[in-house]
Amino acid sequence: xxxxxxxxxxxxxxxxxxxxxxxxxxxxxxxxxxxxxxxxxxxxxxxxxxxxxxxxxxxxxxxxxxxxxxxxxxxxxxxxxxxxxxxxxxxxxxxxxxxxxxxxxxxxxxxxxxxxxxxxxxxxxxxxxxxxxxxxxxxxxxxxxxxxxxxxxxxxxxxxxxxxxxxxxxxxxxxxxxxxxxxxxxxxxxxxxxxxxxxxxxxxxxxxxxxxxxxxxxxxxxxxxxxxxxxxxxxxxxxxxxxxxxxxxxxxxxxxxxxxxxxxxxxxxxxxxxxxxxxxxxxxxxxxxxxxxxxxxxxxxxxxxxxxxxxxxxxxxxxxxxxxxx
Amino acid sequence: xxxxxxxxxxxxxxxxxxxxxxxxxxxxxxxxxxxxxxxxxxxxxxxxxxxxxxxxxxxxxxxxxxxxxxxxxxxxxxxxxxxxxxxxxxxxxxxxxxxxxxxxxxxxxxxxxxxxxxxxxxxxxxxxxxxxxxxxxxxxxxxxxxxxxxxxxxxxxxxxxxxxxxxxxxxxxxxxxxxxxxxxxxxxxxxxxxxxxxxxxxxxxxxxxxxxxxxxxxxxxxxxxxxxxxxxxxxxxxxxxxxxxxxxxxxxxxxxxxxxxxxxxxxxxxxxxxxxxxxxxxxxxxxxxxxxxxxxxxxxxxxxxxxxxxxxxxxxxxxxxxxxxxxxxxxxxxxxxxxxxxxxxxxxxxxxxxxxxx
Lengths: 326, 358
Hints:
The complex is a heterodimer. Chain A has helices spanning 2-28, 34-42, 50-60, 66-78, 92-127, 132-146, 149-163, 182-219, 223-230, 235-272, 278-287, 291-319. Chain A is an all-alpha fold. Chain A is globular. Chain B is 63% helix and 3% strand. In chain B, a hairpin with a 2-residue loop joins strand 1 (54-57) and strand 2 (60-62). The relative contact order of chain B is 0.12.
């Protein structure tokens, strides 16, 4: 087990190095650099003398070839130093730390809701297979699965904020957030998070429910289910104790696949809802050519993805006694 | 009894799969939707536009609407005679004997139709709600949304097919080599697949797009294709691992057939059915990515009547609900149709599901 873990972590580190190397090469070849983009945005009359430019380039390490700069970045990373954001003049680690919580708030809660809801829904669909209610629910879920989250986000904004005015349009907190009591603050964040969390959740919920159902359909045809029925186990007992437990295995491995999708979704959804998370920071930092921030975020995104995959493999051994890593 | 043997050929795999696919109404209606979209995409200049589909001008027949497909296909005579894209008035003024048949809807996807351009039709108001002239309303500069959507259909379809075509070529090649040759080739290629899978898709696509100075819709398709092949590669690899052990591969090898010929002539044919399924789902995903990128403002540059660009306009202008509703529904329907086709294919070609239905 320990040796398996060590091997997996080593592979993950190599993968991370390769990913960041490729992304670093890519972003350094994006036309325009942080200095020119910054100048163009602030004031066209405030032009930079060549000497000043040289000086700035030296400070930000832009004067060196990108492979050397990448080596420096890795070197700093080993000393747990992610560098300084160029456009925001703050340490990247602090920027990301501030943004991590809002993103996790959305993605983790959506993952939890998905898992809590998909199992009863999937089981209900299996048990009621063929009835009108089941057909309606299955069709509805299938349609939801095909509905792009950014379209749903716009529809929801249009309906719940613009037309009905029930929920705030965007952002994470209201303007008078600081003056609120603790309960008021929680309620405020909850109101703001409701729409984005719903958009994060419904797609994976539909997918997972269908997944539970198709696995259940396969399992209920197995011999041991027939045996259980034959010896007089109640229908609930058959579904819950005998059939469902065996569908857990593939369900657990889905976590590894869902995480990258959630993080990719964060880029678009956070943009729509002006949610102060990592996705919108990534978007802004690409626009500002803020190399250190882009690199820091790429690292965090990829590391979370790899972590999800590792977690899925480990959980696999937990739920399936046939699988051991020794 | 004459002893005549029935020599009718048994139906092949594809004919049988088509038979099963055709028998189910849901995937079939999805297929009809996609075919309908393709027809709309091809006939877009005849459905909505301000250039005549066919017209007689100074004694000759012209087809100016072809200019919507490609600018140079619009006959240069109209540039020389300074039509400035205003056909009805100029045709009448410069040649009283001329006649023209206009598209079904006289609206342009790139510009606002003004007052008096054509008889009996008032000009477009900016931000107009859906009405008799602007079926789906207009955007903030008064351009008709219906015309933009009709002309944007080709982008949605092209993105799906071209990017998944690229992804299929890369994925099948990588997967085939990894699965067929095994050993170190498999190790290297499998690592490569994992590497690409681990980068969040949008992160990679945004970085790649930013590198290109003036990204066009073709660049976008190539980039989506180059990032979305991993699922196809993994499936191809698994199929090849399974199929290369079969007798017909050994037989082909005994006959002296080369490795590449075995891979692509013998093994791939038998692996194609399961590979088609992720490709179909991939088309839906590619359409999603393109509209998402256009929506974020990272798509092809304007003037590009992509559905995602319209959605973006709706986002900045929330009171114009028609800018959100109609393109949103179009994207949703297209994605739904491809997903249904993918599912239908899966059920029609999977031998396990086939037996369970009997």
